[in-house]
């Protein structure tokens, strides 16, 4: 077998592989002989079909199968011989595939980048710290009560916190725009579910009132054609409803699956859940900062094939997240929606793996056990969850991967300039800009 490799770009390689004709012919002949032993053809006894007849009838298909197997095997042998690491599957192009002649094909593929890790000591990290206060717990309980509120229609003017049912239609420069009309829409005033000025403009209005709301779409609004535009919404209030908050009693506590009988016990459980949420939020934001600077400091080129594969994963996750079933093809989602996030994920993954390899970092068993214990603590039967993780190799490896990431973050923080900043709970739990990536 002859192999030549051409570098066509920083990461792309073209490998030309020539396989001796004898190798193909010998494999074809062996396969023809095997087929002759079992094939049934009218006019011949089983096992007595002449090889010539078998080759005439099945030779083309047999050769195609043999060539496919030879391509796979010889490509694997060639990349080992040339010491290259393909990233993704190769694109195969046949150059010569004639009986009796040497078989030749070209494999085009990308390779993993060679990474030389930059010094991380120049990184400046702002590490947020926070704690759950009694006031935070009280605010959370108020929020939970509002979520369980019942609504009673009232005759008075709408106030902040009320739920109003409205009809509206939006106009820009006197022209109605797509998506700007709705009928019988429920809006909780003060929820900030609408653009700035919309909800506050309804405060003080009664059922039956019709009026114009003058608002401006934010500059970062998702619809490109509406960003920063002044709009008028012709609005009518259909009804106004006031909330009735549930009592803090056993019936209310049971709705959250908590085995508590009094308010103090409920506060303790809510505070514990908030503490877990806070810990995870601070950890995610710190990791996001570290990985963002890691990417910025190490400007590496990443294989397109890996990015495309990650885009496919993100498409599938998006469909699952929004409740899409098998009837929705993830490929319908535009590639551009996920390209930046996919590239960042791949870049972070390659850099993290390089740090793990360069520093011989292995998942700490104690931290793995602690991570499983923490996840299990939110279930009614924690030990069952712990046993399940420990008996499921795939899930256990996922936990180990997360722990390895945490250990990489710790390793990088040792050399970075870290400044601690105390923030309130509400600020701390806000997600980082790149946390999803």
Automatic annotation (TrEMBL):
Its main location: cytoplasm. InterPro entries: PPIase_dom_sf, PPIase_FKBP_dom, Trig_fac, Trigger_fac_C, Trigger_fac_C_sf, Trigger_fac_ribosome-bd_bac, Trigger_fac_ribosome-bd_sf, Trigger_fact/SurA_dom_sf. Keywords: Cell cycle, Cell division, Chaperone, Cytoplasm, Isomerase, Rotamase. The keyword Nucleotide-binding does not apply. Residues 161-246 form the PPIase FKBP-type domain. The keyword Protease does not apply. It is found in: Cytoplasm. SUPFAM superfamilies: FKBP-like, Triger factor/SurA peptide-binding domain-like, Trigger factor ribosome-binding domain. It comes from the Bacteria. This is Trigger factor. It comes from Neptunomonas phycophila.
